[in-house]
Design goal:
Shape: elongated
Strand order of the largest sheet: 1-10-9-8-7-2-3-6
Order of helices and strands: EHEHEEEHEHEHEHEEHHEEEEEEEEH
Structural class: alpha+beta
Largest sheet: 8 strands, mixed
Oligomer: single chain
Number of helices: 9
Radius of gyration: 23 Å
């Protein structure tokens, strides 16, 4: 169960919840993927006014590579909110639009581009970022994925004042979330999107009534979470089974774990470490009563579902029957990554 939001307020207890009649904040909401829509929805239902949305430009997506609007842009369109899609937030035209909007604050959730110093001071209360980690842990583009791959047992979301450094700004509040033993990054991000949206609204309420002041991040406990590319999601069977399990869940659903079989790419759904596996070399396949097993550096994992190139995801047992596995065959080139 997620923890309740903890706002690092100097005067929140004395000020209490937002009072009726207090003026709402004029907001520019910046976000792009589906998890950011949860926060946009929460703000649309709050006392504040979302006067415009900033999101990444339309881009090719899906198997057909058709040009699509971002999930945030689609929701803004449905709500009749103006959408700004500069190629870069450094564009002079966007900076002029930002000044004309005269917003009080700009909440940010996974926008996908760095906000330049020239824009940071334009809103009265600056930019407030909802980040899916317990800062200063996992600063960067993929905090949920890295927390899961590192074996963290607890993560969370934090709101902080955006500044020029990478996720270095002072923190307004946090909410914690336990990481389950079978969570994927998609599962975890889905829960954090909901609890984080509540934290973001509470943070803006506190800024609006003057009850909240951000506090500097600790100097200790800093870790980085760089973007995960497709090559990073390639499974290294030379790692122990529990590490393979974490890494596969960390890159599920995106960019998606993969390996090779007979020289072709094979996408993997989450795997399951086995308690008493047979002795297998790293990457070696075995089909038996326990299912389709793959050896690692220490122990083995069971494949649940796989997706050969150009085909749909299917149960691993069905794939193995169709592939007619030979004894000693392995996943991964030369039995390794």
């Amino acid at each position: 169960m997620a923890g309740a939001p903890v706002l690092r307020a100097r005067r929140l207890a004395a000020a209490g919840p937002r009072r009726e009649g207090e003026p709402p904040l004029r907001l520019l909401f910046a976000g792009t993927p589906a998890p950011a829509v949860v926060s946009l929805e929460a703000l649309l239902g709050s006392a504040h006014e979302v006067v415009a949305v900033l999101t990444r430009p339309d881009a090719p997506a899906g198997r057909g590579r058709r040009t699509s609007r971002s999930p945030v842009a689609e929701r803004a369109d449905a709500a009749g909110i103006p959408v700004l899609q500069p190629r870069s937030p450094r564009d002079p035209e966007f900076l002029a639009q930002l000044a004309d909007l005269a917003v009080d604050c700009a909440p940010v959730v996974a926008y996908g581009a760095l906000v330049p110093p020239a824009a940071l001071d334009v809103p009265v209360h600056g930019w407030v970022n909802l980040h899916f980690s317990l800062l200063p842990a996992w600063r960067g583009a993929a905090p949920v994925q890295h927390a899961l791959m590192a074996g963290d047992e607890v993560t969370g979301a934090a709101t902080f004042q955006l500044e020029a450094g990478l996720d270095t700004g002072p923190v307004f509040g946090v909410v914690t979330e336990p990481i389950g033993p079978r969570d994927t990054s998609g599962d975890l991000l889905g829960r954090l999107a909901v609890s984080g949206a509540g934290l973001l609204v509470a943070t803006l309420d506190g800024i609006a009534d003057g009850s909240l002041r951000a506090e500097p991040q600790p100097a200790e406990g800093i870790s980085l979470a760089p973007r995960i590319e497709t090559e990073d999601a390639r499974v290294d069977w030379a790692l122990p089974a529990h590490v393979v399990d974490r890494r596969v869940r960390g890159v599920t659903p995106a960019p998606g774990a993969w390996t090779t079989f007979r020289g072709n790419r094979l996408r993997l759904a989450p795997v399951e470490p086995q308690q008493s596996p047979p002795a297998l070399e790293a990457g070696e396949l075995s089909v038996g009563p326990a299912g389709v097993l793959v050896g690692t550096a220490h122990g083995a994992v069971r494949l649940t579902e796989v997706q050969p190139a150009g085909k749909k995801m299917l149960p691993a047992a069905d794939w193995a029957r169709g592939a007619r596995l030979e004894p000693g065959e392995r996943l991964g080139e030369q039995g390794g990554a």
